UniProtKB/TrEMBL annotation:
This is Aa3-type cytochrome c oxidase subunit IV. The keyword Ligase does not apply. It comes from the Bacteria. The keyword Transmembrane applies. It comes from Aurantimonas marianensis. The lineage of its organism: Bacteria, Pseudomonadati, Pseudomonadota, Alphaproteobacteria, Hyphomicrobiales. The chain crosses the membrane at residues 24-43, 55-73. Residues 13-48 form the Cytochrome c oxidase subunit IV bacterial aa3 type domain.
Length: 74
């Protein structure tokens, strides 16, 4: 059977809300830039491997997409 908790259930713990908000903002930024980076890699691979752009064409399209995303996402 379940035992009674050995901690105080009437007084909840103090929360550090500014730290929660900073952590959530960091999570959102990492998610946004991770998604942008993944899409840029996939487009670069498509240009380089499937569309005949070669290695330099893939790298160039990757860098251009990251630059465009940087100015849009600011």
């Amino acid at each position: 059977m379940a035992e009674l908790p050995n901690y105080d259930t009437t007084n909840p713990a103090d929360m550090d809300y500014p730290e929660h908000e900073r952590t959530y903002a960091l999570f959102l930024a990492m998610f946004k830039w991770g998604t942008i980076g993944t899409v840029a890699i996939l487009v670069g691979m498509t240009v380089g491997l499937m569309m005949g752009g070669g290695f330099l064409g893939g790298i160039l399209s990757f860098v251009v997409l990251l630059a465009i995303a940087y100015f849009i996402a600011r």
